[in-house]
Write a structure and sequence with these properties.
Blueprint lengths: L3 H14 L7 E7 L2 E8 L2 H12 L6 E8 L9 H14 L8 E6 L2 E8 L2 H12 L6 E4 L2 E2 L9 H9 L9 E6 L2 E8 L2 H12 L6 E4 L2 E2 L8
Parallel strand pairs: 2-3, 5-6, 5-7, 9-10, 9-11
Antiparallel strand pairs: 1-2, 4-5, 8-9
Helix pairs in contact: 1-2
């Protein structure tokens, strides 16, 4: 049984275990599986590391993330310089099709737009930007518009999810409407939820995934 204090401690330890976050001052609170993160870090990469570390902790059902990025003065860059760095990084990444992503930068916050045929390319574009110096945040508005016109088969998605050793798919329901796949039901961890969504996104012909899976680890939480 894991109560609120134990979940809080587990998340704190998970964050401290990450090399980038050893010295980071990040506050953690937990209540009924909902974890809140607060504090200030000096890079967007650290913000993302803290969020991902918390997601991997068993018992976390939802995450409220209010970590602020404040760059050291020596790390600050103009929006024009950041935009140039982003474009260079995207063009250097073989996973991202050339000249398919547009970039907007405002006060260090980067917005990515455009259309790509695969979700892994969209994720690669965002991950490329996460670790660039001067970036305070990234909004990924890239849309998926697949080049294949094959019909999406429900059983193909179900089989793909079922092949993963990391996912218990006994309570996962898949529905297909046109180019949209919807996942409902329950899984044991946030990792399983994201992994099921990632696998669904790999389906040829898909434009949208609605990941409505609920996380329920069956832990009892107490005040």
């Amino acid at each position: 049984m894991k109560n609120n204090a134990e979940l809080q401690e587990d998340v704190q330890n998970a964050i401290k275990w990450e090399p980038l976050l050893h010295a980071a001052e990040i506050g953690v609170t937990a209540k009924d599986g909902v974890v809140s993160l607060t504090g200030i870090v000096d890079s967007y990469a650290k913000k993302m590391e803290a969020e991902n570390a918390a997601k991997r902790v068993i018992g976390v059902k939802a995450l409220v993330e209010k970590i602020e990025v404040k760059l050291h003065s020596s790390w600050s860059k103009t929006d024009a310089d950041i935009a140039k760095d982003v474009l260079t990084a995207l063009n250097s990444n073989w996973s991202v099709p050339k000249e398919k992503v547009t970039v907007k930068v405002e006060e260090g916050f980067v917005t990515l737009e455009g259309e790509l045929p695969w979700n892994y390319q969209r994720e690669a574009a965002k991950n490329t930007v996460n670790y660039l110096m001067g970036v305070k945040g990234v909004t990924n508005l890239i849309k998926i518009k697949t080049e294949t016109h094959d019909a999406i088969e429900k059983h193909d998605v179900e089989k793909a999810i079922g092949r993963s050793w990391a996912i218990d798919d006994s309570d996962i329901n898949v529905s297909v409407s046109g180019t949209t796949v919807t996942l409902t039901g329950t899984v044991d961890s946030w990792y399983q939820k994201e992994e099921a969504g990632r696998i669904a996104w790999n389906t040829p012909g898909i434009w949208h995934v609605k990941n409505d899976l609920e996380v329920d680890y069956y832990y009892a939480f107490a005040d």
